[in-house]
Protein: Gfo/Idh/MocA family oxidoreductase
Amino acid sequence: MTTSPPTAVFIGVGSWGRNVIRAFGRCGVQPAGFLVAGSGSTRSWLSQHFPGAPVASDLYDLLSLPASMAVVTSPRDTHATYAAAALTANMHVWVEKPPATTAFAAGALAGLAAERRRYLHTAFTYLFHPAFDQLITQLRQDDLAVVRFDWRRPNAPTPVAWELLPHELALAIRLTGWIPSDVVIEGDSTCLRCHWQVDGGPTVEVEIDGCTGPKEKRLQVQTRDGTTWSWTDNTLYRPHRNGPVRQDFSRTDPLWKEAQCFVTNGIEGRWSAHESRMAVAIVDLIERALAATKSRTGAPGVTPD
Ligand SMILES: NC(=O)c1ccc[n+]([C@@H]2O[C@H](COP(=O)([O-])OP(=O)(O)OC[C@H]3O[C@@H](n4cnc5c(N)ncnc54)[C@H](OP(=O)(O)O)[C@@H]3O)[C@@H](O)[C@H]2O)c1
Structure:
């Protein structure tokens, strides 16, 4: 018996969205159609790579196409609306982080997914990095002393609190096994520091610099016995008595692994309350921390652009 390949509609085909479309292609997913803002360069990219595939200008035309999944990689402020519409059309939904910029809207999405029994996945792609897999399997949560993130990303999309910080929060929550009740965010829309203390556990520090180069993303973990693990871009340095041991990983594997996980969970009809809970918590933490920073300093720069 042959089964037809899974199909998806893609909302957003920008610089990141094209990577996501390629990753789904590697998983055998056929595009049923696309929704874009309508730039000429995107239309010509689509006609070159997917000749004949429908390119809709209307969301409801797109959602009436035969597809079981919707992949939302349009700009941040459109995520919640598109994800909700696709869930309502009974599709499994992949939505880029953040799924929404209010806890209310993120919670409503999670509720809709549960009600429809659809799989709602927020793309925290770094959780699927094989270097992170190693950290998770090699380190015990109660051995962690300091968890420190440093991300330099010149010309980062702003505000970095919504564009980049969700990734670090997801990694820290998964690594420490703990969702903080509050975090502190200091800074402005391009550079920030975020920190919190895990109850009876490590301090977590995040620094994001969206201006200065060179580009580098690093996570350092110190354990209680003083050893340091360091994950920089696609390289993991594990401690060893003769000095750190280096291990390099592929840049494209995390996104492919993430797409595979989404497709499998969608096909098997799984939905995960645990996953939704983390995504909602991340939105809630950022929303409340930004509001607290604003009332403390009156700094308008940390609120969404
Ligand atoms: N998970 C990750 O690691 C990761 C990494 C990078 C980015 N992202 C996220 O991915 C998303 C897209 O980023 P990007 O860099 O690809 O952005 P981008 O290059 O600006 O692309 C945005 C895409 O959305 C389309 N679009 C714009 N407004 C729209 C609307 N109202 N309705 C439907 N489509 C619309 C654009 O259409 P046209 O092409 O016609 O203009 C374009 O195809 C962002 O939310 C970003 O935060 C995630």
Observations:
- Residues 126-255+288-296 form a domain with the Dihydrodipicolinate Reductase; domain 2 fold (CATH 3.30.360.10).
- The longest helix spans residues 273-297.
- The chain has a mean pLDDT of 94.
- Residues 153 and 215 are 5 Å apart (CA to CA).
